[in-house]
Amino acid sequence: MTASVPPAPRTGATLSLGGDLTVNRLGYGAMHLTGPGVWGPPEDPDEAVRLLRRAVDDLGVDFIDTADSYGPGYNEELIRKALHPYPDHLVIATKGGMLRTGPDDWVRAEGRNPYIVALGRPEYLRQQVELSLHRLGLERIDLYQLHRIDPLVPLEDQLGMLAELREQGKIRHIGLSGQPEVTVDQLEQAAEIVDIVAVENLYNIADRSGEPILRYAEERGMAFIPWFPLGHGDLVGPGGVLTKAAQRYGVTGAQLGLAWLLRHASNTLLIPGTTSVTHLEENLRADEVRLTDSQWEEIEALCATVTPWRPKPVRKHRGGAR
């Protein structure tokens, strides 16, 4: 990291990550800054670089989420190209421990569910941490998350390797990510092995099945990072329920969904992703949305009428559910 003067602080609240990193609760998820289907390089690399620089240099974004499986590899390389040497205030979180086969993995289509196979063998995790360090141009990763718990490898071995790498100074903090979620039981088990500072689960205003782990994390000072924060288009698409509701308040559906997450729990750390600078700027103004309690209750009731899509395991194989 290089010494730098951070942009003017945002108006929204901040969050302490691991007790020693303070970040704005509105960050940026870089996942979509890759090729179609989150595979390969972006179609317009120059625009992707411009967006990252706009976010960090001008708009106050100080938390970026990525993973070794985004691209794979290209996403981390792009972040380095755009932002290295990194400003002091920037926290980059990355993840490892999951395999993909191609661009269709995360495509929503009838009869298709994400092919996301956990691989938590310690030697593999070590390799992936080293590769992420290299691609990002870092000596230490501020937050490294186990992307998915491997059911075929003892959790002690998976997290034990990350703890060992933390002791070696290659990782600052450790987190857990779920596809689609980490359970409270799993988080409790993990917390007995190593300090967990963040958990990343599928969660949004219409899909609140992760409420117990959100509150578990909140009570213990862990950050909760919701992925699919806007319901994969179910909520904020052209006919989405939040899109329609937002028209009453002069905001966007995405701003409404993100503002609700900020309001709902004190430990939410948001990483809305976009490839549009305009949408990025709009999303970051979500912390300016002010509605009354009754207005929020009305919005919650509207969202309770829809069932957003979520990935479901379709069968078992050696690598676990897929």
From TrEMBL:
<dbReference type="InterPro" id="IPR020471">
    <property type="entry name" value="AKR"/>
</dbReference>
<dbReference type="InterPro" id="IPR036812">
    <property type="entry name" value="NAD(P)_OxRdtase_dom_sf"/>
</dbReference>
<dbReference type="InterPro" id="IPR023210">
    <property type="entry name" value="NADP_OxRdtase_dom"/>
</dbReference>
<dbReference type="Pfam" id="PF00248">
    <property type="entry name" value="Aldo_ket_red"/>
</dbReference>
<keyword id="KW-0560">Oxidoreductase</keyword>
<protein>
    <submittedName>
        <fullName>Aldo/keto reductase</fullName>
    </submittedName>
</protein>
<feature type="domain" description="NADP-dependent oxidoreductase">
    <location>
        <begin position="25"/>
        <end position="302"/>
    </location>
</feature>
<dbReference type="InterPro" id="IPR050791">
    <property type="entry name" value="Aldo-Keto_reductase"/>
</dbReference>
